[in-house]
Amino acid sequence: MKKKHRKLPRNTDYSAYRHPRWWPTWIGIGLMWLLAQLPIRVQWWLGKIAGLLAWRLAGSRRHITEVNIGLCFPELSSEQRAALVRKSFIANGIGLMELGLAWFRNPARLTSITTVHGLEHYEQALARGKGVLLLGGHYSTLDLGGSLVTEYINADVMQRDHNNPLMNAVMTRARERRYGKVLGARDLRGLFRSLKNNHAVWYATDQDYGRKDIVFAPFFDIPAGTITATSRIAERSGCAVVPFSHVRREGRPGYDIYFHPALENFPSGDDLQDATLVNHTIEREIRRAPEQYLWMHRRFKTRPNVGDPGFYGRH
């Protein structure tokens, strides 16, 4: 009989990564640390260069981005869509540089160029005493925006672990310094425990997770596989679901964080209605700065019917 292996827990002890096979990763981490010490304007400039290189060289990701933007913004001309694709790569290149700021620097130094909007909505939701599910999205400001949020509120976070164990250790330890708890993506027990203790938990639902436990709800008017877990979590815990986002300012260093009123009549008892509301809410935030969204993900990979033709071809 084939022996089953239990998935090993995260190992965030750096002493476990002394073997030479980890040296290339350590070099990469060291480079990230060095770049994080540069002035933010220089980091943004380097991020722009990195984004433009990826735009030219990463053909598969560029194709996915082109397809997604073509589906979601049919009202734009072909020239406008091409420009948005290019700007998206630049924004995500800057976001890559911002990882170093989030992991190795104290985001408190950026509060002078950060404005928080609607914090009272979060405070009102937390006052209910049932916990708050912070409904976020995969924006290019993901890590830095999340770190900046913790300058104003206390929050836990759910994360998908990095495939590289050493990189995951660095990421997890960095987030543990900012968040109350760093929960695994499937740690629902930990999630409910946090909500029961009236904590806020950062949670994102805006990617394609396959065909399990989903409904097809419109996302930019395209049927998109959307998980129903958000409704289940809110139903079981009684938590408030508060949309929030974080946006990098254009032209000059600075950030804006937005909190919105908790979703009303949620959950409604209708999974499709709930998923539609969630997608519409995330879509509204994306439209603030469309180029700052992670369009490189195959958001529409899962089609309503198994035999439906895919959007992305062989890429």
Topology:
Blueprint lengths: L22 H14 L3 H18 L1 H14 L5 H27 L9 E4 L1 H8 L5 E5 L5 H8 L6 E4 L5 H14 L3 E3 L3 H9 L3 E5 L9 E6 L2 E6 L1 H9 L2 E9 L6 E5 L11 H16 L29
Parallel strand pairs: 1-9, 2-5, 2-8, 3-4, 3-5
Antiparallel strand pairs: 6-7, 8-9
Helix pairs in contact: 1-4, 2-4, 3-4, 4-6
Structural overview:
This protein is an alpha/beta fold and 315 residues long. The chain is built from ten helices and nine strands. The strands form two sheets. Strands 1-9-8-2-5-3-4 form a seven-stranded mixed beta sheet, sandwiched between helices. Strands 6-7 form a two-stranded antiparallel sheet. It is globular, with a radius of gyration of 20 Å. The N terminus is likely disordered.
Q: From the alpha carbons, calculate the radius of gyration and give it in angstroms.
A: 20 Å
Shape: globular
Mean pLDDT: 94
Strand residue percentage: 5-15%
Output the structural class.
Answer: alpha/beta
Please state how the strands of the largest beta sheet are arranged side by side.
Answer: 1-9-8-2-5-3-4
What pattern of helices and strands is seen along the backbone?
HHHHEHEHEHEHEEEHEEH
**Helical proportion?**
40-55%
Got a strand count? 9
- What does the main sheet amount to? 7 strands, mixed
Termini separation: 38 Å
The total of helices stands at 10
Low-confidence stretches: 1-8
